[in-house]
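Notes for week 9. Today we move from apo structures to complexes. The key idea is that a small molecule is not decoration. When we ask for a structure prediction with zinc ion present, the ligand SMILES becomes part of the input, just like the chain. The input block below holds both the sequence and the ligand string. Read it once before you look at the output, and try to guess where the molecule might sit.
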Amino acid sequence: MAMEERFHEYFAALDRSGDADNCFLCRRSPAEVKRFFGFYEDGTPIDPEPFGLEDVVLAPTVDVMSYKGARPVCAVCQLSFESICLAGDKPAMLELQHQMEHERDRLWPDHLRAPES
Ligand SMILES: [Zn+2]
């Protein structure tokens, strides 16, 4: 994809997300996603020796965020979603989503309940 198309895709995604360059699901920034995978923002490993990553550098072209969907999503959430689906737990995920939306007070202790309006 040409650089110009990538910029257009990126800024169109930011328009859809209210200018937030974060994962729509977990709210991680691209730098936080790289840190989650063990890399500094420039692509160098944070702690290379224990993991044998002395010669590994994430290329600048490695994408840790996708801006092609309805909202930006990170590679961590994509992998988590895929593992949920592969495990056959998609119905449970949808049930949990429903419970989180409609049964918050049942899921959480009193001090974490939503304020009464
Ligand atoms: Zn995420």
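The pocket of zinc ion is lined by residues 23, 25-26, 28, 74, 76-77 (CB under 6 Å).
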